[in-house]
């Protein structure tokens, strides 16, 4: 760095050269980030840490916005070559643009324009045509500003579109319809249509929940419109599942019946619990069951029922009100979700002896409920206040963090400062068979 005295003594051409050199270094640094993220994503390290994907890990542990995280991952996937199981490599989709970025010749914005262009490239285009188009855009990027490069992009896209045959409109029936399927990762993909009256109701529910929400630090919501709508739909589904009129068991949520034989429990077979669509691990079952009524039934090999477990494990209305007053909504650091959109989560699993008491529960929204179950974040109550301990890779000291987003002033407490600290750690490697063994009861899949 240059001190205040020297910076005013440098000749103007030298200052200009310094700025140019450092901006080019900034471009090269972003190329290095893409290379590292590409390796991280290629090895699927985020899943090993308990996150859905690399973007989710960047969002939570590096505190990047969702849009920034998704953009970096998308750039990395197109800028870094893939390695197969035999050690062979295939060229990156945007190898020439990545090389120019790494040399400091083009900026991140230039690369983004090129990436967005090729995201719309028809699959029918030959490799030769794609390489020619990329060379044209990289050559232009070395001479143009990003907003000028967008004009080149528009011409290339227009050329591609003119070559594509028009698709005939689909014949849609006049009825409400939803078609869905699960992909190999357990995600639900669906299409469908609603009649005008139902569509108006649906849009009325979706609209308020899909509005952009500023982050706790005041920065704008970086989610795209489809992402906001998807999150809003997930919240509507979660809220509807907790409405008493939809239950069939005296005001409880969903009724989940998971059956295993005694031999399967003794042998600790994980697959016995994975017959529910979209679930891949016992921890997925535990998370889904966190606010469902669990009726564990154990059977001998001949089908004789051996045990039926207790079901009084959900927070009462009075407890929900107390939790709403104490936590003000989702207690995870930075989350602004209100109490209505949260789940009363047991800090110490109910199946492992955890009580349905206020000093063993915390409110979590759908997203952070999954993070607490699937990653190395820990939650505890100290003095009646929810605290979260980040993974050691984020903070080696693992200093506790509290949510300061709901309201100004000191956190609320409900039982003074002498409440015991209750802490629990959740990892994806804990099998349900191990949970059975620890608890000595068949309710071990419950949260």
TrEMBL record:
CDD domains: HNHc. Transmembrane segments: none annotated. InterPro entries: DUF222 (IPR003870), HNH (IPR002711), HNH_nuc (IPR003615). Pfam families: DUF222, HNH. Residues 318-370 form the HNH nuclease domain. GO terms for molecular function: endonuclease activity; nucleic acid binding; zinc ion binding. Residues 206-229 are annotated as: Disordered. Belongs to the Rv1128c/1148c/1588c/1702c/1945/3466 family. This is DUF222 domain-containing protein.
């Amino acid at each position: 760095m240059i001190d205040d005295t020297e910076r005013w003594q440098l000749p103007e051409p030298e200052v200009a050269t310094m700025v140019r050199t450092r901006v080019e270094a900034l471009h090269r640094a972003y190329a290095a980030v893409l290379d590292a993220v590409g390796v991280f994503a290629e090895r699927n390290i985020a899943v090993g840490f308990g996150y859905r994907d690399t973007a989710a890990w960047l969002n939570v542990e590096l505190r990047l916005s969702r849009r920034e995280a998704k953009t970096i991952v998308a750039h990395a996937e197109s800028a870094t070559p893939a390695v197969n199981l035999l050690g062979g490599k295939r060229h990156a989709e945007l190898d020439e643009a990545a090389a120019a970025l790494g040399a400091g010749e083009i900026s991140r914005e230039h690369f983004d324009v090129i990436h967005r262009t090729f995201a719309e490239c028809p699959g029918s285009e030959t490799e030769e045509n794609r390489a020619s188009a990329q060379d044209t855009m990289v050559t232009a990027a070395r001479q143009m500003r990003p907003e000028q490069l967008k004009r080149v992009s528009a011409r290339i896209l227009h050329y591609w579109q003119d070559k594509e045959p028009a698709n005939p409109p689909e014949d849609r029936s006049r009825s409400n319809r939803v078609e869905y399927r699960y992909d190999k990762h357990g995600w639900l993909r669906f299409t469908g249509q609603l009649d005008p009256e139902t569509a108006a109701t649906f849009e009325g529910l979706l609209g308020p929940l899909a509005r952009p929400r500023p982050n706790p630090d005041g920065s704008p919501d970086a989610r795209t419109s489809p992402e906001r709508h998807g999150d809003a739909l997930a919240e509507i589904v979660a809220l509807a599942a907790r409405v008493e009129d939809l239950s069939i068991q005296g005001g409880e949520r969903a009724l989940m019946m998971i059956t295993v034989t005694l031999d399967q429990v003794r042998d600790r077979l994980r697959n016995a619990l994975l017959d529910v669509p979209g679930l891949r691990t016992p921890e997925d079952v535990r998370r889904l069951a966190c606010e469902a009524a669990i009726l564990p039934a154990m059977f001998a090999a001949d089908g004789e029922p051996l045990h039926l477990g207790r079901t009084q494990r959900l927070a009462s209305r009075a407890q929900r009100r107390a939790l709403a007053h104490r936590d003000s909504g989702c207690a995870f650091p930075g989350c602004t979700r209100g109490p209505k959109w949260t789940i009363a989560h047991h800090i110490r699993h109910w199946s492992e002896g955890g009580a349905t008491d206020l000093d063993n529960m915390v409110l979590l929204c759908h997203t952070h409920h999954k993070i607490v179950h699937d990653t190395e974040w820990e939650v505890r109550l100290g003095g009646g206040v929810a605290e979260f301990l980040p993974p050691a890779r984020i903070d080696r000291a693992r200093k506790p963090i509290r949510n300061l987003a709901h309201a100004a002033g000191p956190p609320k407490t409900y039982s003074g400062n002498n409440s015991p600290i209750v802490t629990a750690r959740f990892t994806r490697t804990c099998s349900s068979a191990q949970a059975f063994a620890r608890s000595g009861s068949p309710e071990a899949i419950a949260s």
